[in-house]
């Protein structure tokens, strides 16, 4: 689906606050060297990652804890009381349990009254999907202030041995959030977006819960249950292709050139994928922040973590154009181009 926001009577949407909440625990490449056959040099060359955060699940640190921390800080930074929120949306693929949703628990813990709260699962594309949905809901006039969170604790689905090495070196845990509010300035908010999914590629990146989740039954192994299964070569090829394609399509939808975008807020999956997009469109380094070296692939938290880092560095300014971009399991990919 592709859509361009427009219409003479539309309201605008502002991002009025953001924040980050990361677990204290860290897992460095040197730590991984002690757990599996790998090396800091090998990991760095192929992914660009040096360290990643890991939630302390043994002591009860969960997705809801990270999400609550991020949203609480974002509300404070926005100067918004939790009771002012009209809706809470959480992009996650790792809820604490199938139910209740992360959104419901966060709304309870923050004291948001009995507002609507839900999780949206599009894996690493989840946050980009979710902010586009939030923009549409605010423009509809049904909601004024929406909290949007990206939070995942995917490390609990990793096998830190030679058997699960391909995925284990990539992922980390984290959360980040934004507060969106209706604006009288109709120029603010989403300019154009894309949402895509290709279920034919689902077998390339998935977390099986039973034998029947394997499309190719001969690949079943009990050690794979509840662990990330990834065809690294296939996912890399998909990501390089679709990442560049969705940037081009979104620019075309908006009728602007690549140089008119001030920041490309990209999902951090692999530094080589980001480099390929930068080269294709001639994007200078200062317009495409890379933090995968410090945080790894944080799934639904990845995109808002980049945005908030730019905010904290004073690099996000009113009037700028920013393009949020992601791709992930599903397979899914999408974009959301905003006027700040």
Task: Give an overview in words.
With 340 residues, the chain is of the alpha+beta class. It has a single domain (1-340), classed as 3-Layer(aba) Sandwich (Peroxisomal Thiolase, Chain A, domain 1), CATH 3.40.47. The protein has ten helices and 14 strands. The strands form four sheets. Strands 1-9-14-13-12 form a five-stranded mixed beta sheet, with helices on both faces. The chain has a five-stranded mixed beta sheet with strand order 2-8-7-5-6, sandwiched between helices. It has a two-stranded antiparallel sheet with strand order 3-4. The longest helix has 23 residues, at 232-254. Mean pLDDT is 95; it is low at 1-8.
Features:
5-stranded mixed β-sheet; 14 strands; 10 helices; single chain; alpha+beta; 340 residues; Peroxisomal Thiolase, Chain A, domain 1; disordered N terminus
Question: Sheet bearing the most strands, described?
Answer: 5 strands, mixed
Give the number of domains. 1
Task: Output the strand order for the largest sheet.
Answer: 1-9-14-13-12
Secondary structure tally: strands: 14
CATH homologous superfamily assignment: Thiolase/Chalcone synthase
Tell me the distance between the termini. Answer: 23 Å
Radius of gyration: 19 Å
The low-confidence parts are 1-8
Briefly characterize the structure.
The protein is of the alpha+beta class and 340 residues long. Helices cover 31% and strands 24% of the residues.
